[in-house]
Amino acid sequence: MFQAEEIESLIKQGMDCEFAHVLGDDGEHFTGIVVSQSFEGKPRVRQHQAVYATLGSLMGNEIHALQLQTFTPSAWAEFREKMGI
Questions:
Q1: How many Cβ atoms from other residues are within 10 Å of residue 20's Cβ?
Q2: What is the pLDDT of residue 67?
Q3: How many domains does the chain fold into?
Q4: Cβ atoms of residues 55 and 66 within 8 Å
Q5: N or C: which end of the chain has fewer CB within 10 A?
Q6: What is the arrangement of strands in the sheet containing 65-71, beginning at the earlier edge strand?
Q7: Which of the four pLDDT bands, split at 50, 70 and 90, describes residue 34?
């Protein structure tokens, strides 16, 4: 069973990201936010695939589900401003 912190660490190690945060408390289902300049110009599906690639064979096996929100740094700043955070 995986912990959210372990998944977050794997993402941070596997890709260049400005911010990554993963939550989940049942060991199989997780949600996360990843912010990376490498997402610039890529459709959302390619952004998610880049994150899943950092987790390799864990996806669909040990990690049953990872719901993602991905942002470029500028989109993240805009989102945070909208949300007031």
A1: 22
A2: 96
A3: 1
A4: yes
A5: C
A6: 19-23, 29-35, 65-71
A7: very high
CA distance 31 to 4: 9
Write the CATH number for 43.
Answer: 3.30.300.90
- What is the value of pTM for the model shown? 0.93
Q: Which residues contact 70 (CB under 8 A, 6 or more apart)?
A: 33, 34, 35, 36, 39, 44, 47, 48, 51
Is the per-residue pLDDT at 5 higher than 80? yes
Q: How far is CA 37 from CA 18, 20, 67, in A?
A: 8, 12, 20
Is residue 58 a contact partner of residue 9, using CB atoms and an 8 Å limit?
no
Residue with tokens 């993602």: 68
Q: Which domain holds residue 38?
A: 4-83
DSSP assignment, residue 16? -
